[in-house]
Amino acid sequence: MKDFLISYVLKNKGQWPVQPEIIQDESVQDCLGLVFGKPRTAVFIHIDTIAFMVRYQDQLVPVGSPEVESNTILIGSDKRGRIETKIRIDEENRIYYQFMRGIETGTYLTYKPCFQYNDHSIQSPYLDNRIGIWNALSLAQVLRNGIIFFTCGEENGGGSAGYLAKLMYERFNVKNALISDVTWASDGIRPGNGVVISLKDRYIPRRSYLNTIINIARYQHVKFQLEVEDDGSSDGGEIQKSPYPINWCFIGPAGYRIHSAREKIYIEDVRGMNDLYQALLDEL
Predict the structure, then answer these.
(1) Which residues are CB-neighbours of 266 under 8 A, at least 6 positions away?
(2) pLDDT at 26
(3) What pLDDT digit, counting tens, does each position of 15-41 carry?
(4) DSSP, res 59
(5) Domain count, the chain
(6) What is the rounded CA–CA span in Å between residue 116 and residue 256?
(7) Fewer CB within 10 Å: N-end or C-end of the chain?
(8) Residue 31's domain is classified under what CATH number?
(9) Alpha-carbon torsion 121, 156, 154, 33, what sign?
């Protein structure tokens, strides 16, 4: 994913109004930073995925929290070649693969792509967080001042957002962050009802910052929903745990069946997300 992003940036940045500084050295490991102009706000987008890893014999263990359903098709490759297999679950809910040969221990297997698109919605595995990535690349086409951080490890414990927070604060003196990600449909959040501004997950952003964002959304006439949950997290949690006084807020569309092979998100919510991010990066 990092290689894809670097290739995309190098190919397209000549058409952008501001040429970004590209941060891709070992100090950020597998993450990628794009710094535009004189930034006041940073956007965090995780580029890792949920998956499965081959254990021993024909066993699988989850990476992150993927939905586990019998006969779901997984793909990958090891030193013996490409792999396409199915999930099998036994009576004790242990997870196995079904393949004609043994697969090398430590091999990652991910959901097989099955992209479906119409005028209203997108259905595909890994919209979490390919939608966040699309939003960031769209912002790069118009951004004059800001930072875009593509992060790693969010689905499996986090970590990179913490050292990126250090970089944005100490090197660029940036104190505002936005989390470009996808959330879950719930009893109070409905896909199609607008972009979600999260007031609380496992962590609670600073209320004065949330109020500023909500006021900008209202002024811009962006359709939005307010989310309050008692669990879940994002790169925002890693920023909050850092020793830096950085404001953060999760903003993104809600989807059905997130972390499954059939995630579904409404295009209207994605457009609203992008409109709000453009306004926030101009006004925060």
Answers:
(1) 120, 121, 191, 192, 253
(2) 92
(3) 999 999 999 999 999 999 999 999 999
(4) B
(5) 2
(6) 14
(7) N
(8) 3.40.630.10
(9) negative
